[in-house]
Input
Amino acid sequence: MHPRALILRLGYFWALLLGAASTGWAQYSESEVKAAFIFNIVRYAEWPQEALPEGLPLRLCVLTRERGNDSLAEELEKLRGRTVRNRPLEIRTAARFEALAPCHVLVAGHDLPERYRLLPESRHQLNIASGENPQEQGAMIGLVLLNNRLQFEVSQEATRRAAIQLPTALLRLAWRVR
Output
């Protein structure tokens, strides 16, 4: 895709999404907005060919709460069957990391339980988390609520270690890039 077309698409998408996040909380739940952020970040992330050979689905794994409702997991489940870069999106959910691996994207939509402390860092796995201090939990991309608006921050060093590329246009939309 031509860089200019990518920038236009990203700009249009984020303008719509950020408008919904700041003015439409009554219309969209926080989990719906987070799921939209996650889906669109995943759409623009690039994995090396060896991580995603031809015909392999893109696996999005969601670390759920052990007990109670997990509305982000429910929203991400709705993405099952969608495609990302001509690949079907496979959704896995579990309360333990071990039950999810291997994943291309690992999402923790809440503060991690004490027994985990950090998301496992793995080559070719994009870690996304929300909650208090998501990057201290090992997130490469952290979803944070600032002034009633959902924002995201990126750890470029962590994405480089995982060999995952994020386009410059996406990085420009981040609240903070470390």
User: Anything to note?
Assistant: Strands lie at 58-63, 83-84, 87-94, 105-108, 126-130, 141-146, 149-154, 176-177. Helices lie at 3-23, 30-44, 71-77, 156-161, 168-173. The longest strand covers residues 87-94. Confidence is low (pLDDT under 50) at residues 18-25.
